[in-house]
Amino acid sequence: MNRLKIIREQAGYTQEEVATAHNVTPQTIQRFEKGTRNVSLSWLERLAKFYDVRVSALVDEIGASDEKATEGDVDETLLREILTYAQTRCKGFDVDPATLAKVVCKTYKKCRKTSGAQQETEIREKVDDMLTCVVD
Fold it and tell me: Closest Cα to residue 59, out of 6, 23, 131, 122?
């Protein structure tokens, strides 16, 4: 079960109630919870405020049921480079660094099946998508 769903249920809300409060369809909330739609950092902040929890509480276990990366699967240099890129994009904005790191790591995990320059480009694009509402 996804962390977003767990926290929503603990707060006592249905998907419909959350959707209505945020002026979106219940399917949007469902997709966030199932992981079929990327959750931007601004959405994480909105949901955290709505549920009265820290943003990190929403992302700590997102993707926990995903296949775990082994040491050989992780390109530490690329991961650090992407995190630096995301931090640079957020410079001057109030963004929790720990949450940003978790979001970048989750994005990296989703993109690790591709390789080389294509992987780096895909990760940067997804990071940009998540940060668009925060920095643009």
Answer: 6
